[in-house]
Amino acid sequence: MRTSASTLIAALLSGAILAACGANSVLSSPTTGLAALSRSASGPYASHGVTENVLYSFAGGSDAEHPTNEALIAVNGTLYGDTEQGGGSGCGSGDGCGTVFAMSTSGAESLIYSFKGKPDGQYAKGGLVERSGVFYGTTQVGGQYGYGTFFKVTTAGKETVLHSFGAVVSGGYDGIYPYGGLIYVQADGKFYGTTIYGGTGSCGTSGSGCGTVFSVTPSGKETVLHNFTGGQDGELLTGSLLYSNGKIYGTTQLGGGGSSCGNSSAVGCGTLFSLSTSGTEKVLYSFTGASDGAFPSGGLIDVSGTLYGMAGSGGSAVGCNGGGCGTVFSLKTSGAFKAIYSFQGAPKDGASPFGNLTDVNGVLYGTTEDGGASSKCTTSAGITGCGAAFGVTTSGKEKMLHSFKDGTDGATPTGTLLYLNGILYGTTHNGGSGSCSNGCGTAYSLSGF
Amino acid sequence: MKTIGLLLAALVGLSGQAPASVRHLVYQFGYNTKAASAGQGTGTLTVDISGPVADGGVMVSGTDFWWNTVRPRATNTCEVYPNGNVKCSQAPYALSSMQLTLFPLLARNFFKGLSPGGKSSWERNYHVSAAIVAGAAGFAGQPSTWNCDFALQGKGPVANAAPLILITAAGTLNQQSGRSLKATSKQSIVYDPAAKVPAIVRDIRTHIPMRSVYSNDSIELKLMKDSNSKKS
Question: How much is the ipTM here?
């Protein structure tokens, strides 16, 4: 017996259907995780004389490729990170399931582990956190349910999946798709992170949730602290968390209410929120998509009690097809918000900032996925440039430090910079001399800034 | 005459099978709005399915007809393989946002992991080779291959609408060439196990990270007509 269209519509209408261990100059940043990072910034803030060096071009294939939302960490002078792909030919794409790698500051790279896909992890991103010589991280996909993993791996390459995300729970799911990486809170000995989807919210579909904040012990016992519900609350979490003075702070790319930013549906332009470690959440600020920005996709950092972050679009500049090229903003924990800089876009400035800022003696350094002087890259939305690295003072004076050129240079930096002994280290998603289409990505350094 | 007869015989012999029947589906769609019979962002997606062809796939042609938006009524024809792979090897080598949501779900084995009780979970990994165009500027570009990983969870029969089954799904789309773009998708699907096609699909697809409002697509599809239903 066939189901009539009217029955289908009826069915639809019925509704059936811590001191964060990032112990470095940015005390609560997850991006560095280790005490190896020196706070003794040596370089005065200046844009001239900046030198970019491609330390390593990821080769793809059995090597790593495409670091994504990466935040390198340093342990005893060696850099560690993860990549979304590479490490073999698994996971259906022929490009591998992702890797964990080590690299000297001069660019000698070695793979520590190559993911295998379900029930192992797949698509590692967000960087690593080191505890007692063991690295912890997340993969976006893979695990028992296909919705991501929390894993640990030793420097000898012994990997263990400690938690698989995405189990069905009452009213919805465990978190789905961890993306923003982890922080470690020394006060309770737990890791904290976010997931893009999952939880008990609906957000336009009858399942899969609006995103979560979770805690997880080093042995893998996970607890969802907050289920986002969309609307006035946030949804879609891709950034890392910040732990400061006993509270957790984070961003959501969407949500916050309002009719802006929804491509006709009212999903809001994103939020900044605080959360107690017991799970009480408060929206501190809702973006409007105007001069304040829209779509914060990275995390926040704490500089002398004020929080700083970036929004990927919006702002007071008219670049980027009139939608704005993104902003740098400050936030008091009381909720007082201020956009301190609006990106101008190509060719003189960056566009679409992504990741976390890195504080070096009061100057905030970061990267943008688009913008910069190169005309080689254009997104399908017409935003040009292969990305840029920049520095901005807390009073809003900005300088572009480097325009990525694609080719053997990197392109599309999608992560957070690491400051180590006077040098900034980062990765690009594309570019370099690897064999992938548009390159497999690079690791680079910036000096003389 | 003898030559023509031989030619016809040869053609029949080459195909080795009777002419493929065509199944005709009509979905009402809403692009960043609810599917409805009127309003901005609404229209119909007509789908013709023929085959199977020699390698086991079916040929699927989809045409979007936007009711209140001036858009060309281009037809995209792609082969949909049993596991969900979609390959658009005919000009314009493209898929609209609605077709990107629907075409993989028409694959013969896409819902094979669904248990009779409708509460099983399963996964699908498939490739879509096409230029993803339509309304989402964030997707447009040259043809490329996207690696798609979806995990699906059957939620059981829809109340008062058996045999329909509610399925939720979440997935990732990773571009394997071009700029290596990333997107995530979450879907709720009302599946008709008798007709073996989705009756209602809601899909929210988001580029990660978002760069503009065009990085977030909401698609709703409702089945309005199915040529196979005449046979019952």
Answer: 0.84
Q: How far apart are CA A394 and CA A304, in angstroms?
A: 11
B100 membership: H or E segment, kind and range? helix B97-102
Percent of chain A with pLDDT over 90: 79
Contact A153, A100 (CB under 8 A): yes
Tell me the shortest Cα–Cα distance from A44 to chain B, in angstroms: 32
CA–CA separation, A250 vs A315, rounded Å? 20
Residue B147 tokens read as 């690696």
pLDDT greater at residue B173 or residue A34: B173
Nearest to B101 by CA among B59, B66, B67, B130: B130
* pLDDT at position A370 over 70: yes
Average pLDDT score over residue span A358-375: 96
Q: The tokens of A294 are what? A: 């829209």
Q: What is the pLDDT of residue A124?
A: 97
In sequence order, which residues have a C-beta less than 8 Å from that of residue B97 and are 6 or more positions away? B31, B132, B134, B135, B136, B139, B205, B217, B219
Please list every residue in chain A whose beta carbon sits closer than 8 Å to the beta carbon of residue B223: 5, 8
User: Please, are residues A378 and A403 in contact by the beta-carbon 8 Å criterion?
Assistant: no
Do the Cβ atoms of A179 and B208 come within 8 Å? yes
Tokens of B213: 């409002």
Q: Is B218 on the interface with A (CB under 8 A)?
A: yes
* CB contact at 8 A, A394 and A439: no
C-beta of residue A271 within 8 angstroms of C-beta of residue A255: yes
Q: Is the peptide bond before A119 cis (omega within 30 degrees of 0)?
A: yes
Calpha distance A359→A394 (Å, rounded):
10
Q: Is cis: bond before A347, omega within 30 of 0?
A: yes
Which residues is B165 bridged to in the sheet? B157, B191
> Looking at the predicted structure, is the pLDDT value of residue B9 above 90?
no
- Is B178 at the interface with chain A, CB within 8 A? yes
Residue that the structure tokens 């080769």 belong to: A59
Structural domains in chain A, sorted by start: 18-447 (2.120.10.30)
Question: What digits encode the pLDDT tens for the residues A177-208?
Answer: 999 999 999 999 999 999 999 999 988 877 89
Band (A35; pLDDT cuts 50, 70, 90):
very low
Q: Is B10 on the interface with A (CB under 8 A)?
A: no
CB of A430 within 8 Å of a chain B CB? The answer is: yes
pLDDT at B8 over 70: no
